[in-house]
Sequence to fold (1017 residues):
Amino acid sequence: MTWTSLNAGIAYPEIFLLIAACAILLIDVFVSDAKRGITHGLTLAALAVTGAILYSGYIPQRVTAFSGQFVADPMAAWAKGGILIGVALALIYGRSYAAARQMYRGELYTLTLFATLGMMIMTSAINFLLLYVGLELLSLSLYALVALRRDSANATEAAMKYFVLGALASGMLLYGMSMVYGATGSLDVVIIAQKIATQAANPTLLVFGLVFIVAGIAFKLGAVPFHMWVPDVYQGAPTPIAQLIGTAPKLAAFAFVMRLLAEALGLAGIDLSQIRQQPMLLPSWSSMLMVLAVASLVIGNLAAIAQTNIKRMFAYSTISHMGFLLLGILVANEVGYSASFFYAFTYVLTAAAGFGMVQLLSREGFEADTIDAFKGLAKRSPWFAFMMLMVLFSMAGIPVFVGFFAKLSVLQALLNHAVLVPGVDGAGIDIDHSGLVWVAVVAVLMSLVGAFYYLRVVKVMFFDEPTDTAPISACWDVRIILSLNCLLLLALGLVPGYLLAKLGEAVKLSSLVLF
Amino acid sequence: MTGNLLSLAIWLPILAGLVVLAIGGGQRSNIARWGSLLGALASFLVTIPLYTGFDVLNGGMQFVELKPWIETYNINYSLGVDGISVWFVLLNSFTTLMVILAGWQVIEQRVSVYNAAFLIMSGLINGAFAAQDAILFYCFFEAMLIPMYLIIGIWGGPNRVYASFKFFLYTLLGSLLTLVAFIYLHYQSNGSFAVADFAGLHLTLKEQSLLLVAFFFAFAVKVPMWPVHTWLPDAHVEAPTGGSMVLAAITLKLGAYGFLRFALPIAPDACREYAWVFVLFSLIAVVYIGMVALVQTDMKKLVAYSSISHMGFVTLGFFMMGGLNHNELNSWAVEGAIAQMISHGFVSAAMFFCIGVMYDRVHSRKIADYGGVANKMPIFAAFFMLFAMANSGLPGTSGFSGEFLVILGAVQVNFWYAVAGATTLIFGAAYTLWMYKRVIFGDVGNHHVEELKDVNAREFLVLAVLAVTVLGMGLYPKLFVDLMHVSVNDLIWHVSQSKLPQ
Fold:
């Protein structure tokens, strides 16, 4: 077994990132607190170089490595690109916040890099065990990051909650994986899919495993009813860490779901004798996801109304956004996956800007984490009030911001399925396709509820008088990048065609769908 | 040049708005004022060739532009106007100019944002009227909520927050359902979002009915029809004068336009089936809301209810199914309704402006706080008289031609519809003139009125321009009706065809 036969070349981005993370861990030991900027710069450079390697090594097809454990396909490449951007934004926006709160230490950077590595592995692993390792690398780094402000009671509490519930979710996921292993005799995604396709898997055991896997995924995504940790962690964690949790891992989780559900278990529960006539049958996890998605949309949006803490409001809004993400996935075809991918990708950018704005207003000894902290922002800083306005309307899905097109693509995928395959019967599927139209209607009605709490923040910014008159003290780099980030939401909304086409093509080329 | 006229009409005001926003901030209010006046004027001038270059005999889309926008979903940047929509592009650009003038001295806080919001909204509204692609239409239709929300919320009255939320959420509710309808139609028409393709689809009555429900929510809320009208009085009362002018003159028309462009051609069978519902709602709006207007003590609220009542007349005209099998729209009623839309655009803008003129001086909208204004403001009183007469449909003013045509059409369809509809002439005259009498005539009511000064040059200019249009349209309605004639016949033919699957 040699380097070439392993085909390790396709994992260069991950390999480089691992080396860089170790190097930065060592270098930081010799960096004094005053010169922490070196670590900051090196970390951003490491992310940039990883991105460059990723870009130069892009192959428009599916290639496996490490004896079929690791895959590089266009979907993974785009997802990794988004993850790197999301992580970099969290570090840039969080720098002065961290510096003001005794968090500006080497651990922040090395743990973040390891979390990034975990996310990249999650997107590229096609072996259950490796998928799990990637997920744990991410989760464990995040638990530690949440607790980085050791003296903060809120942060410690959040870390504890996150850890306990996260460990429970990992346990469920692992239990589900072991059942699927029992049913198919393999941990390899491709072999599992083949076993299911040839009906060589025990269907009862498979469905049991599936339920646990879906529950584990729902925990990680923060979908109702497995969402309890999300608001507490978002509120308790230091804002840069909340941003880190709330952005890039969503993309990683999307890819993770693709590997587990679409690739490995995409045919679970489908009557294969019917599939030639009815190529758009839904796998049995679709109906589970539908319940999770609708519940997330309803609970997330309704609960967000009652929040006074903006981080907590973002948490509930994330829950509802994850509901939308699941809506695209449950359609279980390329149209739906592309839509969800676009949703996740743009959500990373939107949420990053939202959290960036919270950190922009925070300063030493002052947390801008209540909605009231945004009072009268239009008078204090008209420019950033407009930027936040764009973020909020994008989250609410109002055109012409990119959030609208993300929602449009998911609704499109839902109705695509409903209209092209009207009412399947006799296929043993417990899901009526015309029902998807009603799911779409529920989804848009819940966006209406969502619009209310986003509007409330706009109201606070534009209609109220400022109570806090301190000038905004952010550095120029944060101002510029945050502004670009927000303008990007508008630009992507004006010209969404390119990214939509690219992500759709990536999903297609990655051949995630077997039939 | 003619190839990009519509794009120019959309993007020029938006660009002007952004420029004003950029250069007119802080203390540079005068730059913001003159800059936006210039922008609004230029935006109005570029729409003139739409009128002069319009081919009257062509019922199809003119000044067409077509560029791919989002190829993945086959969404196009597709623009065009026909004899119906061209009027609203003109009306909108004209109103924006008036609005900028109306807010000249009144708005002192954040002038650049105020004017920029109106300019940007003007561009978005032009886009909604010109869009021939459903998603493009939807984008413009919904994006305009943002500036309006800010206008009501920042410069509105004491209860502005409530009003702005109600306005935004009410309108959003309707349009979200329409989005689902559009995507559904997209798949029915083999992946096209072109409005013309939607109109050619054959759909079952059940599908059409559900689509009609979705369209009803989007457009009836915007019109607003009874019983989804309750946001309008709140929004009008709280909005600044300019906001009320644009709301009444333009955005309400967008709802009615939506019925013409989407509901009627796409779901004609459902429209025929449920025409009675629309007629009923419209008549309730005309009669009941007319009575409600009668008892208002707030002038702005009174004009707001009068708007609902007048718009009830418009929707009444749209659903007058006549002909042998009751399957044909009555051309008089439809043309009358469209004429009423344009006329109401001028008249309601003028009415709100008049109220704004008084409010700026006295800071009250209560009828009881006035009395005898004519003694102190004779020129203003004369103009206000003209607009009040137009609002009550006096022959010779623009208000008359539309209402008369709709009533004529209604007589042909059902005598009793016409009788119920015609009560608007009585109610309209009653509430408008009674309000006029209490505010303008009589002895000087109090010291506020005693201190009133007559209109200044700027206000005179706005009033005079509006008066000329109101009179012009009343005396020579042919000018307006001729342009839309072919397009309306085209629409009527479309609606008379059954779209049920053969």
Q: What stands out?
A: Chain A has a mean pLDDT of 86.
